[in-house]
């Protein structure tokens, strides 16, 4: 079993660099796949209220307290009081007294409620029920707004990030404030697995294209939460840290960046 790499967040807590993402995992399948993931060595499981699988993830964890659990506040519950209520519902579905990391899933600037939601997360952190707090899909302007309003810097920002959309300016902002960057869709939703340059690098280094891409993320100090539905693929993703990429490999993958390569929604347009 490969050793789990960790990253240190700005609140002093550590987070596993590779986790198991559960987006699009049906609740009925979540117990089995979560159980398999932690059984082969995953020490982080990422879920969300919107995914509808918090109960299944809880069943798969079977009360284990040695797994880092992340869940998220859905956009319908942005606001102070509504965020507190939504957090209580997530805890109930997870069967836990606290979570390791609680994130605002989307800022939804058109609603104008994410700053109040952040204030609620600060309260949850101060109460010890959310051990760390962060955000997802926030850009620099959204981050500045919550930091200016509370003086509290998110521990982590989970954003779309892959070789085809590398978010370099946002990563620089994170680095300046000690915010961990966690990549969702780290494989470009599968679109990059057949990229000729990725395939060439994988063949040269004796790894799979997915492992080459995940190793690139880890090289840049990014956390990743790839999804997998089979035990073999779960194990392969977890072993990505063992892939030995050379400097020229990293440079070649860096060159795949496309500022227009976003595959998911643009947070500024929601």
Radius of gyration: 18 Å
Overall mean pLDDT stands at: 96
Basic shape: globular
Strand content: 15-25%
The string of secondary-structure elements, in order, is EEEHEHEHEHEHEHEHHEHH
Report the helical percentage.
25-40%
Tally of contiguous helical segments = 10
End-to-end CA span: 41 Å
Low-confidence stretches: none
Query: In which order are the strands of the major sheet placed?
Result: 3-4-5-6-7-8-9-10
What does this structure look like?
It is a single chain. This protein has 270 residues and is of the alpha/beta class. It is 39% helix and 16% strand. It has helices at residues 30-39, 54-61, 80-94, 114-127, 140-150, 168-177, 196-205, 209-219, 231-238, 247-254; strands at residues 6-8, 14-16, 20-21, 44-46, 68-73, 99-104, 130-136, 156-160, 180-184, 223-224. Strand 4, helix 2 (54-61) and strand 5 (68-73) form a beta-alpha-beta unit.
Question: What are its keywords?
Answer:
270 residues; alpha/beta; 10 strands; 39% helix
Topology:
Blueprint (H helix, E strand, L loop, with lengths): L5 E3 L5 E3 L3 E2 L8 H10 L4 E3 L7 H8 L6 E6 L6 H15 L4 E6 L9 H14 L2 E7 L3 H11 L5 E5 L7 H10 L2 E5 L11 H10 L3 H11 L3 E2 L6 H8 L8 H8 L16
Parallel strand pairs: 3-4, 4-5, 5-6, 6-7, 7-8, 8-9, 9-10
Antiparallel strand pairs: 1-2
Task: Write a brief caption for the model.
With 270 residues, the protein is an alpha/beta fold. Helix content is 39%, strand content 16%.
